[in-house]
Amino acid sequence: MHNNYVYIKIPSLSTNESFARAAVAAFCTSLNPTIEEISDIKTAVSEAVTNAIIHGYENTVGDIVIQCRIRDRLVEIIVEDFGCGIVNVDKAKEPLYTSKPELERSGMGFAVMETFMDELVVLSEKDVGTKVILRKTISSKNEINSNFW
Fold it and tell me: Is 107 within a domain?
């Protein structure tokens, strides 16, 4: 059984989005994911962190906490902010819905996360923050034959 975790806390600066994406991808390499699987994870994390920066904190800086856990072949990534929260999560998850049309946002963040991950859970409370839980099982066919080396 393979269990591991990492906890990262970053300020909600747009320059940290690429770090968060790369850090989670690097953490997941122990499962020997395919290029497509790692790309899916990076895309979903990028969307979740960008949402926290733009929507969670709007024009202020706050903390974003990223927790990543591996249990066997399941990767669970939690991206949490402590910003303004989402009043209506179901509405926010609708494709093309955006609360910031003036920023030319596509409104596809949650739809993208759902497409690239096996499971998406969004928990949010107004003025408390938002927790986005992303889950993906990495295929076992990628296992490295330990006898090879």
Answer: yes
Model-level pTM? 0.86
Please say whether the beta carbons of 58 and 97 come within 8 A.
Answer: no
pLDDT average, residue stretch 6-31: 96
- Structural domain contains residue 77: yes
Four-residue CA torsion sign, 77, 47, 51, 89: negative
Residue 147 counted as domain residue = no
pLDDT single digits (tens) 68-101: 999 999 999 999 999 999 888 887 777 665 655 5
DSSP assignment letter at 139? P
Number of domains in the chain: 1
Residues marked as catalytic: 47, 51, 105
Asked if residues 94 and 108 have their Cβ atoms less than 8 Å apart, the reply is no
- Here the CATH number for the domain that contains residue 28 is 3.30.565.10
Bridge partners of residue 121, in order along the sequence:
133
Residue 146 counted as domain residue: no
